[in-house]
User: Which sequence fits this backbone?
């Protein structure tokens, strides 16, 4: 997809703040500091629309980014951040679980992992959870630029084995630094957001953004 517009919409803490326009959502899950926000920025060619930080735990809420008035990236708070209290961790778990299991507009979950290291216990748990609920998923192994190209294959193999990725499962090596995997990931995402993509090909770029009146359901 060619990205013409990207906007930060809302930092949501719960369902009543999720957008109600029915547009498809692509959610990003992964441990804190793994590179979720950086991946979004790379995908939409923006330097810092999704706030990134070298301090883990930067993204605390579910941040919605609207792309081409057509779909959302939903940036999740990272898991596995040691300095987060037990209570916070539990509420994170509940929020994510509720969203993932009930959100009708969710089309695909990107599980972001660090290609440099074998998957953590939390990565594995997330992977198993997504599999268990049969949610469409793609493992995106990022920070590939931080290891020599000659070792990518070996790291990919270790990652796939560690998680239990099966042949036919979506798996994309990525780098927000050098753009590796960007085209492949857009191609995949495009496939998951149809048929809305077809409607959007007729979007008039000059004016009249497609504003859908929410709340016809009464
Ligand atoms: N070299 C390199 N650095 C990256 C890459 N992706 C992210 N980083 C760096 O990793 C750090 C964390 O990136 P973020 O995108 O903020 O990570 P996050 O997963 O959104 O973190 P939380 O919001 O805390 O969960 C930043 O310093 C980024 O610059 C990558 O592909 N290559
Ligand atoms: Mg983030």
Assistant:
């Amino acid at each position: 997809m060619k990205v013409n517009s990207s906007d930060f919409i809302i930092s949501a803490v719960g369902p009543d703040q999720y957008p109600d326009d029915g547009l498809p959502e692509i959610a990003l899950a992964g441990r804190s500091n793994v590179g979720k926000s950086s991946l979004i920025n790379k995908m939409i060619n923006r330097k810092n629309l999704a706030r990134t930080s070298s301090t883990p735990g930067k993204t605390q809420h579910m941040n919605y980014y609207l792309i081409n008035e057509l779909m959302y990236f939903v940036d999740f708070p990272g898991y596995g951040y040691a300095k987060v209290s037990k209570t916070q961790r539990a509420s994170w778990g509940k929020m994510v679980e509720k969203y993932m299991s009930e959100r009708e507009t969710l089309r695909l979950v990107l599980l972001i992992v660090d290609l440099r290291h074998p998957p953590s216990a939390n990565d594995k748990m997330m992977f198993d959870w997504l599999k268990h609920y049969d949610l469409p998923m793609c493992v995106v192994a990022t920070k590939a630029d931080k290891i020599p190209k000659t070792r990518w294959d070996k790291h990919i193999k270790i990652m796939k084995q560690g998680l239990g990725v099966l042949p036919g499962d979506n798996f994309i090596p990525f780098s927000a630094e050098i753009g590796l995997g960007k085209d492949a990931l857009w191609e995949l995402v495009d496939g998951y957001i149809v048929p809305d993509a077809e409607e959007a090909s007729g979007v008039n770029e000059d004016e009249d953004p497609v504003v859908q009146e929410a709340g016809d359901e009464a």
User: Anything to note?
Assistant: The chain has a mean pLDDT of 87. The pocket of guanosine-5'-triphosphate (ligand 1) is lined by residues 30, 32-38, 52-54, 56-59, 77-78, 142-143, 145-146, 175-177 (CB under 6 Å). The first strand starts at residue 6 and ends at 12.
